[in-house]
Design brief:
alpha/beta, 4 helices, 10 strands, disordered C terminus
Length: 181
C-alpha cells in the first residue's frame, strides 16, 4: 500500500511533535508531504526531512491556514490515495487500511466529525478543495466541517488515531470507538 498512499501533514512551530512523528513513522515506506504553514519559531528545512518525505513551505503567516496548507499538500500529491492528518495525531496500524476495498467517491474517517481522513486524491480535487474564505469557527461552523459535508463520510475502523503525546496540550489516545458522534 505504501506506493499508492501519501500522508499529508500540516506543521506550525511544533518541532517536538514533528520529531516524534518522524520517529513513529521511521520504518514506513509511505510518501509524506509536510507543509510548514509559515512557522516562525521552528521552521522546517529540507535537512529535517527523511528520504521519502517532501517539504512544502508557506512563507507568509496568514493565521488559521490549516486548510490552505492542506490544499497545497493535495496539489502536490502524486499517489491515487491521500491520508490527511494533523500533526497532533498518529495513525495506529496504518498497514491495516486496504485501499483496494475503498470507494473512490467517499471520505473515510475515524468518525463523522473528525478531520483526519483517507480520500481518493482526484475526488478531493473534484469536491473543490477546502474553502479558504475565513469562516474559521464562526457561528459554530468550521472550514473543515464545510468541506466534510460535501461528500458521504464512512467510518473506517482501521483508522485509529493516537494523540501525538509530544504535542503541547495533548489529551492522550483516541481510538475510533472512543470518539463520540
Amino acid at each position: 500500500m505504501g506506493s499508492n498512499l501519501t500522508i499529508g501533514i500540516t506543521y506550525y512551530n511544533q518541532i517536538e511533535a514533528f520529531n516524534h512523528l518522524k520517529e513513529y513513522y521511521k520504518d514506513s515506506n509511505y510518501k509524506f508531504i509536510i507543509c510548514d504553514d509559515a512557522s516562525f519559531t521552528h521552521p522546517l528545512t529540507e535537512k529535517d526531512m527523511p528520504d521519502n518525505w517532501s517539504l512544502l513551505t508557506i512563507e507568509k503567516d496568514i493565521g488559521f491556514n490549516n486548510e490552505g496548507a492542506r490544499n497545497l499538500i493535495m496539489d502536490n500529491v502524486q499517489t491515487e490515495w491521500s491520508l490527511l492528518v494533523d500533526l497532533d495525531y498518529l495513525i495506529e496500524d496504518i498497514d491495516k487500511i486496504n485501499l483496494d476495498e475503498l470507494e473512490t467517491d467517499k471520505i473515510y474517517s475515524a468518525s463523522i466529525n473528525h478531520n483526519q481522513f483517507v480520500i481518493h486524491t482526484e475526488f478531493f480535487k473534484k469536491l473543490g478543495k477546502y474553502p479558504t474564505t475565513g469562516i474559521h469557527r464562526i457561528y459554530g461552523k468550521t472550514v473543515d466541517n464545510e468541506f466534510l459535508r460535501k461528500a458521504e463520510i464512512k467510518i473506517l475502523p482501521e483508522l485509529s488515531l493516537i494523540n501525538n503525546s509530544k504535542y503541547p496540550g495533548s489529551i492522550g489516545s483516541i481510538k475510533n470507538d472512543e470518539i463520540k458522534i
